[in-house]
Amino acid sequence: MTEPPVPSSSASVQGAAKRACDAAPASSDVTLGPLVYARGYDPNSSRHQLSILVATQEGAAPPDLRVEGASGPAPEVIAVDTLGGHDFWRFDLSVTAGDTCYGVGRLRHTLTLPAPDDDLAVAFVSCNGKEHGDFERPEGERDAMWLRLAARHANAPLSLLIMGGDQIYADAALDAHPDLSRWAEAPPRERLEIDATPEAEAAVTAVFLDRWVRSVRSPSVARLMAEVPSVAMWDDHDIFDGYGSHPAPVQESPLGQMIYRIARRFFRLFQAGGHLPQSPATLSRTLAQPGFAVIAPDLRSERQKRRVMGEAGWRATEEGFARARPGEPVFVLSSVPALGPRLSLVEAVHKLIPGAQRYEDDLRDQWQSRAHRDEWRRFLRLAAGHADETGPVTFLSGEIHLAGRGEMRTPQGTILHQLIASGISHPPPPRVFARALGALGALGEAPLSGHPIRIRTLPGQVRRYAAERNYLLLTRQRGAWQARWDLEHSGMTPALSLPSGPPAASPRSKRDGLEAVAL
Fold first, then answer.
1. Peptide bond into 423 cis (omega under 30)
2. Residue from 482, 475, 341, 332 nearest 402 by CA
């Protein structure tokens, strides 16, 4: 199968810059990082807004940050947090498009930052871990797909890394302290009676820190996160399994709230690059990029058994669509698939199947759950209206530990694509699961009248879902967008063409200039 094209951003200059940056020795004053985060793109100044997160030993002075060959305001350094013997520092900077070498301490790295008309490559990953024994696996096995993505980046640089949830699996936190173990086994109502002690909080914090440090220190992940700006949204395992889909006493209990508070602290550090969210209710965010936008609704912070997002989340998501520039593609990061098979059939009968009740929260996690059907319609109407009137919409999702894709066609003939890449390191489920899900996909679904959803096969595949570890590669070449999946055993799929221009309908009047972030 053919490899995707190399973006045409002066490969020889980039390669020379990369060799110069790599020539420096390792730094002794940086204990973690650097990790680079995308904060937006200003089309008026052609500048990328970035944050760089680093950690030093507690009590040490912050390291110097140098950006070579770039003009603009000097980077601003901000103390973010102190955890586990580390002081965390955030650098905010503004960089013009092009290849840029930066240094933190004695470390050197190259960023490839595109302009609106440049060819580029974007990677989407999700589900980085597994529920039990995650780091007991040999590194080469656990991170096999990360290694492939890093090798791909070394030959053809990525400009953005989108992470779609479950960047860590924090399930071990429930075994971190006897109170947590008792809480996890207790009936929901009894969980309200178990206090959150400082000892339990310290134990959970230590587990989260250990998971995050191990994840970002893995050589392949560390290289990518130092050289490719990322944007991330969390999902349930970044908090605890099924967060939001359990009975209310589970989340509202003192220990449930404590775990959420700790997870949000780590979201700020490792998924939002050290930035505090503007809203206490939602982490939803919108990110402008050169020639496209990323909208990332938070499907966890406000979730309840019969609700996916509260009004804060809906308001942020609707504002993200309203601020998108007409004609430019919008990639919507829905951590659980927005276009999927008729899972309400499974939900209707699962209580009749012995042992299936333990999957109730997994079914409630999905947009297709009967409990969320009205919200699902609201979400699809919002996306379909934008696609018909303003510009292309593509959903990016993970969560199901399979690769897959779907389509929804509007009465105007506009097609919205759903691209699923899951997981980057989570083992795939049995193939029989993928086939059963594919059989459900054959039934079709139409939550909106006149908007049929169809589950399609990946390019070059014969079944609707691929039970292999994977990541998704999005490329823009001469203005045309394409998608490919790198499957662990089958390799890179042929290209799938994505909508790349304005719709046939007249666009609505929009505000120009999508600003950086809704955090």
1. yes
2. 341
